[in-house]
Structures are given as C-alpha cells and as structure tokens.
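Example record for the data management plan.
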Amino acid sequence: MALTGKLTKKLVENLHAGRHGDGGGLYLVVAPSGARRWIVRVVVKGQKNKKGDPLRTDFGLGGADIVTLNHVRERALGYRRMAKQGLNPRFNGARKIPTFEEVAQQVHIERIPAWKNAKHGQQWINTLHDDAFPKIGQMPINAIEQPEVMKCLAPIWTKKHETAKHLTQRIKIVLDVARSKRFRSGENPVTVIRDAQALPKGKAKPKHHSAMHWKDVPTF
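Corresponding structural encoding:
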C-alpha cells in the first residue's frame, strides 16, 4: 500500500473552498473562511453499515496549518492499513498507537541496564536517529511494513553495509517489542525481507596491512 501524492504544498496553501483529494481517501477540506483541515475516508474490511453496504468512515487528521502534507500522508496510510485489517480507526483509535520513534526511545530506555557501556547504548539509538527516524519515525508503529523498512535500508545497504546490518537488527527489535505490546500483529517485515533476500549481499571492504619495504624483509 503506497503513499499518495496528488497535492503539493503550494496547492494546499492556495486551493479554493471545497474538498480536494490527494488519493487513497485523503482529502484537504477548505472552508469558505479559508480554514484548511485534513480528513481521511477508509473502508473497513469485513464491516457493513446499517444498509448492508461496506462501512466507510471519515475522521479528521488535524489542521493543514499544523499537520504537514508528508506527515498527514503517513498517518492516513497507517489508518488505511488498520481498516484493511478489519479495524475501525474510529473505535480502535481510542488506544493510542505510538509512533516508531516513541517505541524505539522506550526500548532504548528499558535496555539501559543491559548495555555494555553508555557508548554502546548511545550508538544503538544514534543509528536509528540517523537512518530510520527521518523516514519512518513519525509513522504509527502498526503502519510499518516491508516498503517502509526498505526505504530505510536500501540507500545505505551497499554504501555503509556494516551500519545497515546494525540498523536492520535494531528496527527488527523495535517492531518485535511493539508486537509483544500488542501494537502490531503479523510477521516482522524485517524477517520477510531477509527471507526473500530482497537486498543484495553486502561485501565487507578488505583491510590491508601496511606494506613492508623489501629491504626490511630479511631482517624481519
């Protein structure tokens, strides 16, 4: 399930009164007064309304002056995934779904006693801060699947392979913890990516020893 993209920041700021679609059920609603807010419409799998038709539900995602276009797309994607699983966001939203960054920070805090040292603990969270949080940090933890994980790993998989391996393991841990707390269900997308061998085999760069001058060899 992909992120949408028909609107632009300029359009959001200048569109006239009415309802303007971005795709995937996400809309910008502009009032005659000029106030702008986001709503998303989802179809909840397996649920019917009073007439027996598929259950469609609309709910607000905040004002366009506060919630950015990229952020609202991520939130809408999370709610569409929830609806696809047969969960009505209007009712299941009562239990706040934390973001990936919120869960990761909590995991980091809970594991402080287990770190070898403070430096190791800081490296653990720094890897996520540098290569995961900018891309998926603000997404609901239950909205993260293979495409979102790949978005974090693919850019650095061959360029910084050792870092990418650490990042893979740390993303997996965060998602596993989220599942143990019932914020997620289903298989961990990191495991799916590994099993499918979706990323190329990384090659460690050889480390060469300093060369010895040939005149020094007999003495050595």
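Summary line stored alongside the record: The CA atoms of residues 3 and 96 lie 22 Å apart.
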